[in-house]
Design a protein that fits this description.
alpha+beta
Length: about 350
């Protein structure tokens, strides 16, 4: 049976680590960016009209932006902002002075000679790896060569051979390297950088996935369930708002395992057909103007010679963990619709 909706990308804000055998794909880099954003270590370049962060992961970061990311990665933004730092550099924009001043004072960067830092120049892979390795306590004088920094980062395991002197280095790569570096132990330390900084390790988090149960004209029905490797599941999960390509949805939902189970039981009894969603902690009926959503699409996909508009579903959600902790989530789910089916 042909799939009704094909999932391109599902991003939920949970804290976990995934180290690939080869270079990360765009989805993994975006997941890294979202995860850093949730931890407060990545701010993005503003927000879009729906309040979702803009990461611009396909753009090249400059040297000032990369040092700023490094300082935030170390949890030192407040210290940097509060300090009165001196540097020899005469070419710094005012906004970057605290970050670069902090990094210079801590020996994380030395500039490009004399009074030049070149803040607007693109940062190379080996330059950013050098920044991170220095932050982890390694010296470019004794532990590694800065122009071959990937050799040590590969050995430590936060890169996997995907970076060399000729590798294009984009903001997505900056997020990916930074995210993986959190699981590395600084030189001479028995704890990982994440542990040193006191950042959550994801053991009290719910990692979830959605399933399209029904795709009909002007309507999508999604169920939500914890993944098999999720440490926790939600006792309550609410889709607070949803849009499809910017078009608002009206939402009917069942927000706990009990509510989902009771709803399926009533459907089964009323229609004399078995309805069940084992493991689902939420079910949402989303109604929207499909024609308007398709007209608003900015991308298309071609399947067997037929072009379909890309449907981007954005959800703002809130969940309750078993210990009562409240979690706010942003999720971006991308589909194309090549047919209608489903009975929920």
């Amino acid at each position: 049976m042909k799939k009704v909706c094909v999932l391109f990308l599902a991003l939920t804000l949970w804290v976990g680590l995934s180290c690939p055998a080869l270079a990360a794909n765009s989805g993994e880099k975006e997941t890294a960016a979202w995860s850093l954003y949730e931890l407060g270590l990545l701010q993005g370049n503003g927000v879009d009209s729906e309040g979702f962060p803009l990461f611009d992961l396909d753009k090249a970061p400059d040297r000032a932006q990369s040092v700023t990311m490094l300082v935030r990665l170390l949890g030192a933004e407040e210290e940097a902002q509060a300090g009165d730092w001196e540097t020899p550099f005469t070419d710094l924009p005012e906004w970057a002075e605290p970050y670069i001043g902090y990094a210079f004072a801590k020996g994380l960067t030395t500039g490009r000679g004399g009074e030049r830092f070149d803040p607007d120049s693109p940062v190379s892979a080996t330059e950013y790896l050098t920044f991170v390795l220095r932050a982890l306590g390694y010296s470019s004088e004794t532990d590694f060569a800065w122009d071959e920094a990937w050799k040590l980062s590969d050995k430590l395991g936060f890169t996997k051979g995907e970076y060399t002197s000729n590798t294009e280095f984009l903001r997505g790569d900056l997020a990916w390297v930074s995210w993986n570096a959190l699981e590395v132990k600084p030189k001479g330390n028995s704890k990982t950088l994440r542990q040193v900084l006191g950042l959550p390790d994801g053991k009290d988090a719910c990692r979830w996935e959605e399933t399209v149960r029904t795709c009909q004209e002007n309507r999508l029905v999604l169920s939500f369930a914890a993944t098999k490797d999720s440490p926790k599941t939600y006792t309550k999960f609410v889709v607070d708002s949803a849009t499809v390509n910017g078009i608002p949805c009206t939402i009917e939902q069942y927000s706990s395992t009990k509510e989902v189970t009771d709803h399926c039981k009533k459907r089964s009894e009323a229609e004399k057909v078995e309805f069940s969603l084992p493991g689902a902690f939420a079910l949402a009926y989303l109604r929207y103007d499909e024609a308007a959503a398709k007209a608003a699409a900015t991308e298309t996909v071609t399947e067997k010679g037929v072009e379909y508009p890309v449907i981007v579903l954005r959800l703002k959600c809130s969940g309750t963990l078993p210990n009562g902790k409240q979690v706010e989530e942003l999720a971006m789910l991308t589909y194309y619709i090549n047919g209608y089916s489903g009975r929920f």
